[in-house]
Amino acid sequence: MKVMVDLCIIPLGVGVSLSPYIAACKPILDQAGLNWELHAYGTIIEGEWDAVFKAIKACHETIHAMGAPRITTTLKVGTRTDREQSMTDKVTSVQHKW
Amino acid sequence: MKVMVDLCIIPLGVGVSLSPYIAACKPILDQAGLNWELHAYGTIIEGEWDAVFKAIKACHETIHAMGAPRITTTLKVGTRTDREQSMTDKVTSVQHKW
Amino acid sequence: MKVMVDLCIIPLGVGVSLSPYIAACKPILDQAGLNWELHAYGTIIEGEWDAVFKAIKACHETIHAMGAPRITTTLKVGTRTDREQSMTDKVTSVQHKW
Amino acid sequence: MKVMVDLCIIPLGVGVSLSPYIAACKPILDQAGLNWELHAYGTIIEGEWDAVFKAIKACHETIHAMGAPRITTTLKVGTRTDREQSMTDKVTSVQHKW
């Protein structure tokens, strides 16, 4: 089952500058061979369900290992059985109706 | 790694009455041996990371099998290494400050 | 327009204990005359759109005034024109299908 | 108070093709003079709190008027008092740590 996820990880107890923790997720996503794209309030990831959620778990583990005692993450998770739709497809599908 | 999740599954393409699909997740959570609690805009689930996300995947698969061609889910996912905190702890922790 | 909101406010830069900040929202919701219910990963609020979002803005302002330099909030926002549905209705609607 | 929002509007009861409804929000955001940027799982909007939430309310009203009997929206809402930070700042702040 393919999934598209919007991942927003918020480490708590480490002050207000979260970008070093977010940046530490990049090699995890890359090594998992996932397609992903950063935006201003999260990261869109697409891939097989198990691979995507294994990577998200590794992000939590890595950020805890960096010293964050608590993490709260918001995810949007999309699956569909009717057809495949990539990140780019979703954006252009809206733009064609503007 | 223990996790607390707030799960809100939205099947698309099946009209506006979503409760039969949400109800179909109950046996999945029960058979996984997870603690969970329904609220008006989702379900709080607590347990080990792998067991919780395996159950969420099974919810998506079940709801697709029931005929929903598309699902969009919103999750909040909390982990912490400083201490254990149950659903009840979190609620009473706020209530004690009222 | 009536709205049901699931509000989860996360103050950043104030350590890992967030409950004093969450508790400070209670009088705001009460004074606004809104129905609300705390759960383990947020607060469900129901009322008129403008009243609900005015209260949420006041929560952000209050938590900043308490010393939090940064806040990230996750909201689920439901509106419907087909019928009225309360917090209790939504829960029992699922429970009747178990 | 400035706010950055990640807006993901899901109309229910209108089938699986949501892009016409999402596209109808573009003129609302433009006429409100807000900065915004579409991504694959939502739209990032930045501006003054009242202007942003007035626009989001107008999106719900417009989508209901287009025939959607029910809408569920997921929002991430960020405010900060320590400094201003644009959509672009947030992305480059992470990219500089890669």
Question: Could you describe the 3D structure shown?
Answer:
Chains A, B, C, D: This is MTH1187 family thiamine-binding protein. Chains A, B, C, D: Residues 88-98 have a biased composition (Polar residues). Chains A, B, C, D: InterPro entries: MTH1187/YkoF-like, Thiamine_BP, UPF0045_domain. Chains A, B, C, D: It comes from Zooshikella harenae. Chains A, B, C, D: Belongs to the UPF0045 family. Chain A is an alpha+beta fold and 98 residues long. Chain A has one domain (2-95): 2-Layer Sandwich (Alpha-Beta Plaits). Chain A contains 4 helices and 4 strands. Chain A has helices at 19-23, 26-31, 49-65, 87-95, and strands at 2-12, 35-39, 42-48, 70-80. Chain A has a 4-stranded antiparallel β-sheet with strand order 2-3-1-4, covered by helices on one side. In chain A, β2 (35-39) and β3 form a beta hairpin. Chain A is globular. The termini of chain A are far apart. Chains in contact: A-B, A-C, A-D, B-C, B-D, C-D. Chains A and D meet through β1, α1, β2, β4 and α4 of A and β1, α1, β2, β4 and α4 of D. β4 of chain C pairs antiparallel with β4 (70-80) of chain D, so a sheet runs across the interface.
